[in-house]
């Protein structure tokens, strides 16, 4: 019997990273238990009837370019457990007030056409990343400080990624291309004038062309169900409805403290759970960890389709609503400094276009959230509705029902969303490079056997499971070293 096959592990939290960590540890032969505070698993991967019976809405995560691109998820062949990716005709659209719209899709020719005189320039910029997308994701889904296997690919990406999004967008001369790129960069939820804010935009745009922005059939909950099925097939156990607020609570799950504990929580959660056992240097870093702007979400049930002015937008799974590039930059800067903009940047999802089974009796689910200040307790419903109406006159008349969740409610729903920050941490240049603290092993908590695997660790937000996989690999490496040391002593 190997040391790993006799070892045990507990994973706290069943988001994509927690479940990925659990699967990887179970693959290595550990006896693994996942503990989830909610009555169902998934973290950000949940789908519910929030408005009208039979109409299914994604609660948090919705479109999954990083999920379909994830090296670890691909290795698991989750289609064996019913996971099916579905693509809209157009992956991403960004409408403008003049009726034009830029689109990003796996059909690069369609993108070229939508971008007019910037089309060829757009293709030249993104073709290298598209051509080497597999090696690129292998690199960027690791901690920034690692020995690259594809240094030329990573180096080329890194040079462009280091730029502020405002500077990178100057490569384009016309409104659609500038807005399309700036909207993708705005997924960083940061002041786009800051260094490294191009990174998210470059990666997500390349993903739109290389693998698309698909949805999971039946909703994002399907990803969680497939991961749980894989985990249980490996002998793992899932316990729901059990909050863990202290390491001593693990005693009610196992007779002894497990050899490995992996926390799929924000640094604030780790401070609470591990408490004084954290080394002072880790505690100080976690206390100084910065959380970013928040999300205000509204789910609509509408009769029929959104009456977009631009026909391309009617076929897009994801729509960015923010107007021109300068307008997006202004809104994101205000949000970052704590001011609610009159016209916030809005991300809208029409998942039913690819997955019509989410609709019922002609009523379709619409997913939308705005970037708002950290901890915002107001109601942004009208501002979001006006942003949609701006590019789709008559939308308001098609609303049958709606449901909202503000940043305070986000934090109550999922403690990882501190102040409503669904990214589990500000995407500042420092925290993109050193997340969650300055160390060569960002997953280890400085205590033997304790690890962090949430979106607060590399590679950050998204449903890709790579933070969980990386944390599990770190834990397995330490187990092997410990077993080797014990063997030599014996």
Give the total of beta strands.
Answer: 16
Largest sheet: 7 strands, mixed
Strand-residue proportion: 15-25%
Q: What structural class do you assign from the helix and strand content?
A: alpha/beta
Tell me, briefly, the overall form.
globular
Runs in which pLDDT lies below 50 for 5 or more consecutive residues are: none
Radius of gyration: 22 Å
In the CATH classification, which architecture of the domain at 8-46 and 65-80 and 218-289 and 423-489 applies? Answer: 3-Layer(bba) Sandwich
CATH superfamily of the domain at 8-46 and 65-80 and 218-289 and 423-489: FAD/NAD(P)-binding domain
Let me know the average pLDDT.
93
Q: N-to-C terminal Cα separation, in Å?
A: 16 Å
CATH hierarchy class name of the domain at 8-46 and 65-80 and 218-289 and 423-489: Alpha Beta
Query: What is the fold-level CATH name, i.e. the topology of the domain at 8-46 and 65-80 and 218-289 and 423-489?
Result: FAD/NAD(P)-binding domain
Percent in helix: 25-40%
């Amino acid at each position: 019997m190997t040391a790993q096959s006799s070892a045990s592990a507990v994973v706290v939290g069943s988001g994509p990273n927690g479940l990925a960590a659990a699967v990887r540890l179970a693959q290595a032969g550990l006896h693994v238990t996942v503990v989830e505070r909610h009555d169902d698993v998934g973290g950000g991967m949940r789908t519910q009837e929030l408005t009208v019976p039979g109409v299914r809405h994604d609660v948090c995560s919705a479109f999954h370019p990083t999920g379909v691109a994830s090296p670890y998820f691909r290795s698991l062949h989750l289609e064996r457990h019913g996971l099916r990716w579905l693509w809209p005709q157009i992956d991403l659209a960004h409408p403008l007030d003049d009726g034009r719209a830029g689109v990003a899709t796996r059909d690069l020719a369609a993108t070229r056409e939508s971008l007019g005189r910037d089309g060829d320039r757009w293709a030249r910029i993104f073709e290298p990343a598209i051509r080497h997308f597999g090696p690129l994701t292998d690199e960027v889904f690791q901690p920034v400080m690692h020995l690259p296997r594809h240094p030329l690919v990573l180096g080329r990406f890194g040079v462009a990624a280091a730029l502020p999004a405002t500077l990178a967008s100057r490569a384009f001369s016309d409104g659609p291309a500038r807005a399309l790129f700036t909207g993708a960069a705005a997924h960083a939820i940061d002041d786009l004038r800051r260094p490294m804010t191009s990174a998210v935009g470059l990666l997500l745009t390349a993903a739109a062309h290389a693998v698309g922005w698909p949805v999971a059939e039946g909703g994002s909950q399907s990803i969680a169900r497939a991961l749980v099925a894989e985990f249980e097939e490996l002998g793992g156990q899932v316990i729901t409805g059990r909050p863990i607020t202290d390491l001593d609570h693990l005693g009610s799950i196992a007779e002894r403290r497990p050899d490995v504990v992996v926390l799929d929580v924000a640094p604030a959660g780790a401070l609470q759970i591990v408490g004084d056992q954290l080394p002072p240097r880790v505690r100080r870093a976690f206390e100084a960890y910065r959380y970013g702007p928040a999300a205000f979400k509204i789910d609509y049930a509408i009769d029929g389709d959104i009456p977009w002015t631009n026909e391309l937008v009617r076929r897009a799974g994801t729509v960015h609503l923010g107007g021109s590039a300068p307008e997006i930059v202004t809104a994101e800067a205000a949000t970052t400094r704590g001011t609610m903009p009159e016209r916030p940047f809005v991300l809208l999802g029409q998942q039913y276009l690819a997955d019509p089974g989410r609709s019922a009796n002609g009523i379709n689910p619409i997913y939308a959230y705005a970037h708002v200040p950290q901890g915002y307790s107001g109601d942004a419903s009208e501002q979001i509705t006006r942003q949609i109406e701006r590019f789709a006159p008559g939308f308001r008349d098609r609303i049958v029902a709606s449901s909202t969740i503000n940043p305070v409610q986000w934090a109550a729903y999922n403690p990882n969303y501190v102040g409503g920050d669904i990214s589990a941490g500000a995407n500042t240049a420092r925290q993109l490079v050193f997340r969650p603290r300055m160390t060569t092993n960002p997953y280890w908590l400085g205590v033997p056997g304790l690890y962090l695997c949430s979106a607060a660790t590399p590679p950050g937000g998204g449903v890709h499971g790579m933070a969980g996989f990386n944390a599990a690999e770190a834990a397995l490496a330490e187990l092997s070293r410990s077993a080797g040391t014990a063997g030599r002593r014996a």
